[in-house]
Amino acid sequence: MEKKRKQHYVWEHYLNAWAKDEQVYCLRNNKIFLTNTENVLQRRDFYRLSMVDRQTVNLIKEMFKTKNSVNASLINLIIEDYFSIYSQITSNEMHSNTVDILMNNYIEDIHSDIEAQAIEFIDKLRSKDNRFYKEEISKVRFESFILSQFLRTNKMRKKFINVMSNPELVQKSLNTQWENSINGLKEAWPIFHIISSNILAAAFSLMKYKCVFLEISGNGEFITGDQPVINTKVYEVESVLDLKELEFYYPITNKLAILLTDKDMGNVISVSCEEVDAYNKLIIKASDENLIATKKEILERYIT
After folding, report:
1. What is d(CA 38, CA 108) in angstroms, rounded to the nearest whole number?
2. Which of 64, 115, 127, 174 has the fewest C-beta atoms under 10 angstroms from its C-beta?
3. Which of the pair, 145 or 205, is modelled with greater confidence?
4. First CA to last CA across the chain, in angstroms?
């Protein structure tokens, strides 16, 4: 069993749409450079697990608590299932080297499985075929993929840790007084974001959203970055706690993007260079430190 050290927080297959000979242009700290997709938007041991105690697991259950008893039972089963890895790890029958590899690979392997299932959806979307989104099972699977891509990034990890470092904000947003478990919750982020994406996807699937294509009509190009899925509605409110709506934007090539929206917009929307620039600026605003494009001159426009 191989220990997977280089762990992408943005799917490498996704980045290939911006690549030529596996090379993309990257803007970081106002410097543009050409790099291999294997070496960008990844961190060493990014999803490695830390040990988590029972109090932290109970806090996560508290965070997702619902008044519906059936939903509450299902959510608790999901949480317990993902944390069952610790029962295996603490087993005396497992060799220390195996434990080390398991701690390192567990979440990375989950993302690999999610990506493997999503390839067919991405390939169809890049051919402007979104018919699968009208089929309930495929729709749920794709939305689960989108939520996982939304939450898996370094930017989202930093946001989560920042919230967990503010006890007052934790109590306000999570309605809990369990300050002593906050550090444990920070350590649980690798599993927490997977659980969150599953539960949020289940809730999202109940909404009547459409998958709309945004196609460039002129010479502009979509960029992407280290936060490739964004909620466009975030920028319409003063605080995330005030957020009531979701609309996910996801560029899938340099010429084509999708919106998961509740608006009636049609199937394919032709977007102007000005509109492309507006979407690119949303990607910039959402990004952590990296932007990706097919050409150097595309990124030069966004150097500040």
Report:
1. 15
2. 127
3. 145
4. 45
Q: Does 257 reside within a domain?
A: yes
Residue whose tokens read 């509740």: 262
Question: For the chain, how many residues are written?
Answer: 304
Give the domain range for residue 138. 6-300
Q: Is residue 39 part of a domain?
A: yes
Question: Who contacts 211 (Cβ-Cβ below 8 Å, separation ≥6)?
Answer: 125, 130, 133, 142, 258, 259, 260
Nearest CA to 78 out of 173, 201, 232 is that of 201
The whole-angstrom separation of Cα 225 and Cα 118 is 19
* Residue type at 138 in one-letter notation: S
Report the predicted TM-score, pTM, of the whole model to 2 decimal places.
0.92
Q: Which pair of tokens denotes residue 235?
A: 């920028």
Confidence band, pLDDT 50/70/90 cuts, at residue 177: low
Whether the pLDDT of residue 201 is over 70: the answer is yes
Amino acid 289 reads: E
Would you put residue 30 in left (φ > 0), alpha (ψ -120 to 50) or beta?
A: left
DSSP string, 205-244: TTS--EEEEEEE-SS----EESS-SEEGGGGGSSSGGG--
Residue 108 near residue 91, CB atoms below 8 Å: no
Say how many domains are in the chain: 1
Residues 6 or more apart from 220 whose CB is under 8 A from it?
272, 273, 276, 277
What 249-253 contacts at long range (C-beta under 8 Å, 24+ apart), as own/partner pairs, is 249/279, 249/282, 250/146, 250/149, 251/222, 251/223, 251/224, 251/279, 251/283, 252/14, 252/17, 252/122, 252/125, 252/126, 253/17, 253/18, 253/126, 253/222
**Least confident window among 68-72, 197-201, 290-294:** 68-72
Q: Which residues pair with 33 in a beta bridge?
A: 26
Helix (H) or strand (E) holding 272: none
> Is residue 1 assigned to a domain?
no
